[in-house]
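Teaching assistant here, posting this on the class forum so everyone can see the example we discussed in section. The complex has two components, and the goal was to see what a joint structure prediction looks like when all of them are supplied at once.
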Amino acid sequence: MATLRDIKRRIRSVQNTRQITRAMEMVSAAKLRRAQNRVEKSRPYAGKMQLILDNLSAASGELAHPFFEKRVVKKSTLVVVTSDRGFCGSFNHNILRRAETFLKDPAHKSVELVCVGKKGFDHFKKRGWNIIFSQIDYGGNLELAKVRHLSTELTRRFLAKETDEIFLLYTTFISTSRYRVTLERFLNIEQTAQESVGAGVDYIFEPDPVAIYDDLMPRFAMTKIQTALANSFASEHAARMVAMSAATKNAGEMIDTLVLVRNKARQAAITKELLDIVGGAESLHS
Amino acid sequence: MATFTLSIVTPEQVLFEEEVESIVVPGAQGYLGVLAHHAPLITPIVPGRLTVRKNSSTELVMAISGGFLEVSGNKATVLADAVEYADKIDIERAKKALERVQTRLKDKPEGFDFDRAMASLRRAENRLKICETITVGRRQT
């Protein structure tokens, strides 16, 4: 049986852990608020951009843009967005598991990876996948210049036919307790069905659809990536907050049980000492 | 005067969403005005001055760094890369950006991208110009 001292030491250690998890929970809560704010505020922009693109592609029809080009898939690229740090429950695990299913799928041939986030990078590096580009320790706050770099590099590879399809794999933030792993086609862009677009709004394009594409596409690509990153970051903190709050609760429960054990052990020690004294006194009497 | 709904949206936020009488936008083909009940239109925006007329006495002036204009169903949406009210422009930052890009254009360092430098130059000049031409940024009565 554990001695009183061992139990006391154990209680202290669990208390310390609880303090740390509670602090981490609070830090994540604060960061989540900011990240969530950013996700929500960027939604109108992304939505509007999609609307313009849909209308544009509906109006320009077949001529379209090289981004729409559907090719026979010989090489695929997968962008995996994970977190840099752990302690966020099943957040990274879910993403990586989905990535593994993607990699096993025979529809995607000779996949190359782009890893954003240390966890994903470590995972695939260890398994010897071909990582063409990685961004680790980005802390969720990727600078505009780096997003642009990533976005131009990806589009360049697609246009140069170094890859035939590009997918984004990230976690969509829905609410604090809900986030979903999302696999999204980044390039080629799939044309939205003609009839579902704009309900017959006949736009004037100035100067003309093709010229607008040139302006729109780089922004569209960047927005897509930024949205994915922002969503992933918010989800990461939501996941971490939930995981840490559970850990804090568990630590509390553990302390409660340990305190009971400690009290029992103390009582036993007292009883034992009393018995010793009584026993000693008895032996003196006789 | 008839009004329409204008929203100015940037990647960071929805900056403005109100009923207005008219706007003047630096389109790719030159400045263009939009009044209520304009025909559906999509056009790129270049760096320049965005003027929003809320009513006969209130006019807002902003510096816009590029984006898109979409008009449909008596609603106009300006998708802006960046947009600032004329009186909220960070002059120091614009000046620094201008200096930086000018030295880059002169020195032409490794990995120098001419198009991007020119775009950056235009943005900085645009901000400074709008600052200068406006004595009172938001004229309100």
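For the discussion questions: Chain B has two helices and eleven strands. Chain B touches chain A through 25 residues (CB under 8 Å). Think about how each of these relates to the inputs above.
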